[in-house]
Write a structure and sequence with these properties.
By secondary structure, the protein is mostly helical. The chain contains 5 helices and no strands. It has helices spanning 2-29, 34-62, 65-90, 100-127, 132-146.
């Protein structure tokens, strides 16, 4: 159980670190250039999606979907809260400075990027037949094929 929460914490920290890195690059490298800032934000969302795609691929092969989906939901919720509320404070901005539209747009974009990342990772895993359920069915088929057929006497 301790390892499970450590993994959740490390993954939350990694997603938040990707956001902080993007914010710092925008602040010190592209301050005032909205086009470059938008591209950097897009790159951040792609990186976050890729991280979660890899996590879904790795966790989905060893555990059933129900066992790791809750962990990913906790990670996404915690990382999103940190990204939206704490991230702007680290670079000297107010989280609500852009208004409600910008605040909620950040939330929806974050959920879209994380959802797409998890979905892509799990769909690739399932398409390759390496997910937990497919492996269970494969083992079941091998066991059933290995047993000789029972003869019924009449």
């Amino acid at each position: 159980m301790d390892r499970r929460w450590r993994d959740v914490g490390v993954l939350t920290g990694a997603l938040f670190a990707a956001n902080v890195a993007a914010r710092l690059i925008i602040r010190f490298g592209f301050d005032g250039d909205d086009t470059a800032a938008d591209r950097m934000s897009l790159a951040m969302f792609v990186v976050i999606g890729l991280i979660l795609a890899v996590v879904a691929f790795r966790w989905g092969s060893g555990r059933p979907l129900g066992a790791w989906a809750g962990d990913v939901a906790v990670v996404v919720g915690a990382a999103m809260a940190l990204t939206v509320l704490v991230g702007p404070l680290l670079v000297g901005h107010d989280p609500f400075a852009g208004g409600a539209g910008t605040f909620f747009a950040q939330i929806w974009l974050y959920l879209l990027a994380t959802g797409a990342g998890v979905l892509i990772g799990y769909l690739v895993l399932t398409a390759l037949g390496r997910d937990y359920r497919s492996q269970q069915l494969k083992r079941y088929a091998e066991v059933k094929a290995a047993k000789p057929r029972r003869v019924v006497r009449r």
